[in-house]
UniProtKB/TrEMBL annotation:
This protein's UniProt keywords: Membrane, Transmembrane, Transmembrane helix
Parts of the chain that traverse the membrane: 46-64
Taxonomic superkingdom: Eukaryota
High-level lineage: Eukaryota, Fungi, Dikarya, Ascomycota, Pezizomycotina
Taxonomic source organism: Aureobasidium pullulans EXF-150
Name of protein: Glycosyltransferase family 1 protein
């Protein structure tokens, strides 16, 4: 199937491979209260939102400057987070500022029946693969006041349960995936079922999914790891009944994989012996797998004692990285900097031979628990992501990128990375300019002032926090949209 779940350090196994305050609709709870009392306003809001969205896109295109990295970044984010976001657009349109009289007039036009007070959400992870994606999902979903979350997960790995517990949020689980839906007919049927490795889960729990589809009470949230796999005929036919029923959302892990998936789905119609009545356009979202971790308490003087360090991610593979060059550069840094510089190699495989002159400064970090892994990352001053293939810039989302933001450590990133992972702000990275290699950038990082390093790290932390806050808000809105589609008569799809 193209999935590989090898043993190794945390990074390797993670193989998926300022927001303004919204006064009216802070949470799903608020949204549903509004929904119950205001009926069709939601629907109107979404339609209005789509119109505003289109206008905003044109406005953006008309005035966008040259295709600099930051404008491309913004364009990506606008596409996946803003203009598809009915609530944002509706707020900008001023629809939330209407008077009560306006609202009453609108109520009569639509009906939402039996909207549940509590939204039942189940996360189902059928493979042991993506603890950190699970963590981000648990954090965003269990933060919704009206959600009753149950997590079905194979054994948590590498102490990931400690990360989950530290959220201090209420949810049930982890329960074994085999217990999902149980054998007891009184089992709660979720309103939303999140398949955390959707590509595999579809094949692993086909009977249960078929039963849920038949009942028509559950909306599927399909977490996409391999955007290209959705071009396969097998997967298309697996997912088609859900797409036909309008009961599925695809959540991708980065804007670039959303774009790839969107193009893949747009091509679905072209080679199908049973053509679609309408070109399929299921909602595609960008859910960046970032969640809070408790930062280790390192004092300034401890930090000074430890000297400067950076981390390289990836297999210890001489074909992937030129270790001779790497150790030479490290030797030069040590000679020039006259201070303690160390390098952490986060990966697995056969360790390369380390020359004597740098031996005391090279650390092989393998098989760390999540807690130790993030603690180590948060101590270093730069992370070199080392993508194993160019696919991480179009169809797959690297886990190193969110990991560095979670730890609050700047990545060494070039403009292609920033364009693909558009949620990473330029100020959060050590930018690799054209013509530079990673070690040129490490050299600049070492030469930077302590204050500059601190500012970058702070920016990365703030960047992560903005995403975490945005995740909670967006997930609330996405669930709200799904609920409207399930419970409100004649509701239009948000992407019309
Ligand atoms: C929450 O979900 C669990 C199933 O995991 C169910 O047993 C429980 O009754 C639900 N609670 C509420 C308040 O809906
Ligand atoms: C269409 O799908 C079939 C399998 O169903 C495949 O063999 C064929 O190569 C596809 N054609 C194109 C043009 O992709
Ligand atoms: C971190 O360390 C400082 C100084 O040792 C201490 O005052 C502070 O309470 C610690 N904070 C936490 C969260 O442990
Ligand atoms: C240099 O830093 C490393 C890792 O922080 C530490 O283990 C080592 O003792 C330090 N060496 C010196 C000479 O300070």
């Amino acid at each position: 199937m193209g999935f590989s779940f090898r043993k190794g350090s945390v990074m390797e196994r993670m193989g998926y491979s300022d927001e303004t305050k919204f006064h009216q609709i802070e949470s799903l709870g608020g949204a549903l209260d509004a929904l119950r009392t205001k009926g069709s306003r939601m629907k109107q809001k979404i339609i209005a939102g789509s119109i505003v969205s289109v206008l905003l896109v044109f406005a953006f295109l008309a005035f966008s400057p040259d295709t600099t990295t930051s404008s491309l970044r913004q364009e990506q984010l606008n596409k996946w987070w803003k203009t598809h976001d009915g609530t944002d657009a509706a707020i900008e349109n001023g629809i939330w500022n209407k008077t009560p009289e306006d609202q009453e007039a609108e109520v009569a036009q639509g009906t939402c029946d039996n909207v549940p007070e509590i939204i039942q959400v189940a996360i189902l992870e059928t493979v042991r693969a993506h603890d950190e994606v699970d963590a981000a999902l648990v954090h965003s979903l269990a933060s919704q006041p009206n959600v009753n979350l149950t997590l079905y997960q194979q054994e948590p790995r590498f102490g990931s349960e400690k990360i989950f517990h530290a959220f201090g949020l209420d949810y049930a689980g982890p329960l074994h995936p085999d217990d999902f839906m149980g054998t007891d007919k009184h089992t709660t049927i979720p309103d939303f079922l999140v398949l955390t490795t959707c590509e595999l889960a579809l094949r692993q729990a086909p009977k249960r999914l078929e039963a849920l589809l038949e009942q028509g009470k559950t909306r599927l949230i399909c977490i996409v790891h391999h955007s290209d796999h959705w071009a396969e005929e097998q997967r298309k036919s697996d997912i088609r009944p859900w797409v036909d029923a309008g009961m599925i959302d695809f959540w991708t892990l980065s804007p670039h994989t959303a774009t790839f998936l969107s193009n893949t789905i747009a091509a679905w119609d072209s080679n199908d012996s049973q053509p679609w009545d309408n070109p399929p356009s299921p909602p595609i979202r960008v859910f960046v797998p970032i969640f809070p971790v408790v930062a280790p308490n390192i004092t300034i003087s401890e930090k000074a004692m430890q000297g400067l360090s950076f981390a390289m991610q990836g297999d210890y593979d001489p074909h992937r990285r030129d270790y001779k060059h790497i150790f030479e550069r490290l030797g030069n840094f040590l000679a020039e900097a006259e201070r303690n510089v160390s390098m952490h190699l986060l990966g697995q495989g056969n360790r390369p031979e380390v020359p004597e002159n740098v031996k005391a400064h090279v650390f092989f970090d393998q098989g760390l628990s999540y807690t130790d892994f993030y603690a180590l990352l948060s101590k270093v001053s730069a992370v070199l992501p080392g993508f194993a293939s160019p696919e991480y810039l179009d169809r797959k989302a690297s886990s190193s990128v969110p990991a560095s933001l979670i730890a609050g450590t700047p990545l060494v990133a070039d403009r292609r990375l920033l364009e693909a992972y558009a949620y990473v702000e330029e100020e959060s990275v050590w930018l690799q300019e054209d013509g530079e290699n990673e070690f040129d950038v490490v050299g600049r990082m070492l030469a930077a002032s302590a204050k500059e390093r601190e500012q970058k790290s702070q920016h990365a932390k703030d960047n992560a926090q903005r995403i975490i806050d945005g995740n909670v808000r967006r997930v609330g809105e996405w669930l709200e949209t799904g609920i409207i589609q399930m419970y409100c008569a004649g509701s239009e799809g948000e992407d019309d």
